[in-house]
Amino acid sequence: MGRAVALQSRAIDDGKFDRAYMAESERPLARVRARYDDLTAQALDLFEEGEEVVAFWTAAEFYGGWFSPLEALQAQGTPRSKNKQNLRLVATSDLARAWAPARPEELSEWARVQWPWDRGNRRGPRYATNGTPGDQTRHTVVVPNSDVNADMLRPFILYLKDGASPFDAPSARETRRLDEKYTSENEAYWSMRESMLRMHR
To answer: pTM, whole model, 2 decimals?
Structure first.
């Protein structure tokens, strides 16, 4: 993942992401994306049976990290024409950026923490809840939040499960334990979610 991030960072600083955004085309990024995907595939091929969940979210982080700069520009309504000051649209040196490359630390964080909504297919990072750079952008391009990621590379081990979800549902005992432990947190989470939905109606 570190090698892929370094490759993407060079492309950003070389202005290739700027050109792709202004042209509304991935053509300026074609060669870099191919190499990035090669590194992604190499990383995903390292996972073995029993590691399906972390393999899936590793794939999601690779995918979300690639599109994060472009998604941030679009979300901010950045004009697709060159500005008069000839300023860069995205740069790795930007301290206030609203995007983030693929982050191993994101994977390690969710692997250590069991969130209140960890149930079946809802397990994994809940992007767009932390307000940190990258979370908002990943929310729009990463499943289960989005249906636009048909080109996301998937680990081979996911195909060994005969189409079944990589996320095993918790046992009845584990479900009771989680319910007892997280009842108040769950109620607060869904209450907040409902109020946010009402604000956007």
So the answer is: 0.72
